[in-house]
Amino acid sequence: AQKELETLREKDTATSDGHRITLSANIEFTNELPQVAQSGAEGVGLFRTEFYLLNGGEMPDEHQQEKVYTEVAKAMNPHLTIVRTLDAGGDKISAEPLSSPEPNPFLGWRGVRVSLTRTALFKEQLRGVLRASTAGKLGVMFPMISGIAEVLAAKELLKESMDELHREGVPFDENIQVGVMIEIPSAAVMADEIAKEVDFLSIGTNDLIQYTVAVDRVNPYVANLYKPTHPAVFRLMDMTVRAAKDNGIWTGVCGEMAAQLLLTPLLVGLGVDELSVGPHMVPSIKKAVRSLSQAECAEMMQQVLKMRTSPDIAEISKNMAYRHY
Ligand code: PEP
Ligand code: MG
């Protein structure tokens, strides 16, 4: 089986009927890069930077950040690396000590909300990414977007950062891909508008599920209610993918759902363009995608979008998976 997975590395990630999907990896640290290369991933779909930026000491400055992003961009070249800007707060490390603890951190000062209030820190990161963008192919992505205003505000700060580098004569990729995470239901609902402002959407199912069904993703008391296959989640994901297609941009999935083999038929059926998973899951997800027919999965999705319960959706996907791999 190991050997089979190794021969897979050289093969395309495409369904049996020729629908190509970019299969990339999620990373948190640069020491994962050898494993990513080994896995056959086509780039990094999610570089979670909060672990690097908030490791206890002082936050790295733009030049230190440039080094790290350059390292990733070089290692992945010619493939795309998507740097997600700081996603502090929620269940993750907090950006700074707060004068009073937040009663509901998941509904609180998190992700791009922090970046849009601490704009100097945010721009430091953006300039670090831009400086590194000539070393390979970099994209930048904003987490915890709830609507169009945050997209515009984040893009404005990106533009300011670009203008500053221009004035300093620092070269960077003028066409760097800019995307947002769709992980809050309001963003999925507004995806048709958001898609007009960005180059890609990446669905963060971990948070999208938690916010859709109002179940804290780390609370054991309600873990049984955290349902990845809840019909509402698929309706929101379908809205997102269709909004992207209508606007000629691509959609990825970088939440855990992308790495769940029994749910791969659903993501293929939605017609997503990219899946980003932990490096160790790359070979088996590739194998699953290669054995599925996109047309058959899309037909299944038509049924899924009419289903009423989570077990029904889990069941139809599992059956498809078992039939093919
Ligand atoms: C997600 O929410 O699905 C996601 C990929 O981001 P994180 O798990 O870092 O919140
Ligand atoms: Mg998230």
Automatic annotation (TrEMBL):
Its cofactor is Mg(2+). Residues 3-292 form the PEP-utilising enzyme C-terminal domain. Mg(2+) binds at residues 183, 207. One of its GO terms (biological process) is phosphoenolpyruvate-dependent sugar phosphotransferase system. The active site is at residue 254. One of its GO terms (molecular function) is phosphoenolpyruvate-protein phosphotransferase activity. Phosphoenolpyruvate binds at residues 48, 84, 206-207, 217. It is found in: Cytoplasm. GO terms for cellular component: cytoplasm. Keywords: Coiled coil, Cytoplasm, Kinase, Magnesium, Metal-binding, Phosphotransferase system, Sugar transport, Transferase, Transport. Belongs to the PEP-utilizing enzyme family. This is Phosphoenolpyruvate-protein phosphotransferase. It comes from Oceaniferula flava.
